[in-house]
Amino acid sequence: MVFTKADRILIQELREQKGYGARRLVQEFPNKNWSISAVTRLLQNIKETGSASRRVGSGRPRSVLTDTNMEVVEELVLSQEGKPGTHKSVRHISRQTGIRRGSVHNIIRKALNLKSLKRQRAQALSEASRASRLIRCKQMLRKFSKHMIPFIWFTDEKLFTVAAPINTQNDRLHVPTLTKSEKCPLHTFCALDQCSLSH
Q1: Among 24, 125, 158, 188, which has the minimal tally of Cβ within 10 Å of its Cβ?
Q2: From CA 170, how far away is CA 190, in angstroms rounded?
Q3: Collapsing DSSP states into helix, strand and coil, what is residue 117?
Q4: pLDDT per residue over 21-73, tens digit each?
């Protein structure tokens, strides 16, 4: 039976201050559904250690979430340094290591604190492209008269690629989980430069 931290403190206080035994504690709190044997073991632990906390090393030992397995999964799920796209999927990691897929998921999410995100294509704006845009905007302005400028408008840009189409559902990236106050660089959208329409 698992006791909450508040239950452990309550049992310890009643034991030390009023001398309650296991049977009396079960009778006083019938809504807790405590078993006499579990309370007896907890009281014995309090007597031997002087604390209601769990003993160090107690409970079922970990068989999968070990340091070795976590290091192996971390090395496979993240791309190698200087080699983007070399990471493995959860299915491939499970096949390669012999660890169940559910356990691999637990290691990634809970132990390594990583989150799976879909890779999105976005427009890359370098300093060179910003400078060329400014030059082309000025060239375009010289082609139109001043009264035509307010009627010029632009639509969203289209991404043209020569690569074969891919399934974005499978093209994923694992990144550290961030709090709401932190800002992930992968979620930063580059706003298109608005060139001034004044001469």
Answers
A1: 158
A2: 24
A3: strand
A4: 999 999 999 888 899 998 998 888 888 888 877 766 666 777 787 888 888 89
DSSP notation for 118-186: E--------HHHHHHHHHHHHHHHHHS-GGGGGG----PPPP---SPP--TTT-EEEEE---TTS--GG
Q: Specify the pairing of strand 114-118 against strand 172-176.
A: antiparallel
**Interatomic CA distance for residues 189 and 148, integer angstroms:** 31
Torsion angle in degrees (nearest 10) through CA of 10, 14, 15, 18:
170
Q: Would you give the distance in Å from CA 81 to the centre of its chain?
A: 20
| Residues 79, 36: Cα–Cα separation, whole Å | 53
